[in-house]
Amino acid sequence: MSLESSFESSLAASQALHLPRAGRQAPPPEAAASAPGLSRGALAGLLRFAGLLALLAVVAFFAVRVPSFLTPGNIGLILSQSAVLGILGLGLTLVLITGGSDVIRGGIDLSLAGTLGLAAAVFATLNQAGYGDAACVAATLATGLAVGALNALSVTWLRILPLLATLAVMNICAGLELVLTENTTVPAAAPLIDALNLAGPFDLPVIGLVLVAAWLVLAVTLRFTPVGLRAYAVGGHPEAARAAGIALNRYVAGSYIVAGLLGGVAGILSVAFLNAATSGSADMLLPVIATAFLGRMFSRRLVPSVTGTLLAAVFLGALANGFQLLHVSSYWVNGIEGALILAVVGVTSGLAQRGARP
């Protein structure tokens, strides 16, 4: 019997015996059938439709108010502006998938914004020291992997709550970034930076295409390989996954390590977009969380998904771009991001409690 078949059998058994799923008691089938109102699936579909409608409404509003909003040049700019946020959001999404829905005891990575700042500082500092692109990229990606490995070690081996562990690692990254940059802007110029700022196929910027490529790799892996099934099993049905012989800690640790690697990629893209490593990477924390959590609204079952995260990143990028074109303060975007996090977490928590109510 294959591992996937074993997992499915164990999942069916856990549902029949009402074993805990994701930290709560599963309701009996008859209770779920008699629950008043719309089913969880219907509500999830309704919210997904609402999310897509909101995205289209924002695009339509800015297209009417600013005729240049939908020009190819501005679309490319939106994709470029969304690239760093989207890459970090994809990393956090992986952690959410394997960690489960409990953001305190489950999956969360607050260190991604710090990883971005540290990785950008490493790239720019080595570039200023005269190292070539290959050395700068290797050191930057190694930095991201090291941060991810530290998170994985803290969560899976030291058993520190992910919220506290990644918060501590974020502060470590922030301190090392200040050591390298001395709280100043470090300019960078290199052939790689020039190449990333060029236009690629369909006149889309290469920076934006890197985001699309990262999404495509992760989407295919999660959707069409056993790794994806097991990753969702670890986060959504840990008891059944353990019974099927899946090494939970291995997948949790892997998600943190890949997230750290994506943080290194985001650092390179940030330097390319700004032509420098700048301070203030901590300001990316709220947008990254908003992107990953808002991405749930675009999934069929209100679960973390890389496709939803990509759409959320573009949505927030379009929102910020539209406000800039309308000369509206960008501070409004932060407020909207906070409101979106509250709304999404509130809705998903409400549905979870609805599903757990006997």
Automatic annotation (TrEMBL):
It holds the Pfam family BPD_transp_2. Coiled coil: none annotated. Keywords: Cell inner membrane, Cell membrane, Membrane, Transmembrane, Transmembrane helix, Transport. CDD domains: TM_PBP1_transp_AraH_like. It is found in: Cell membrane. It is a multi-pass membrane protein. Its main location: membrane. PANTHER family: ABC TRANSPORTER PERMEASE PROTEIN YPHD-RELATED (PTHR32196:SF21), ABC TRANSPORTER PERMEASE PROTEIN YPHD-RELATED-RELATED (PTHR32196). This is ABC transporter permease. It comes from Ancylobacter moscoviensis.
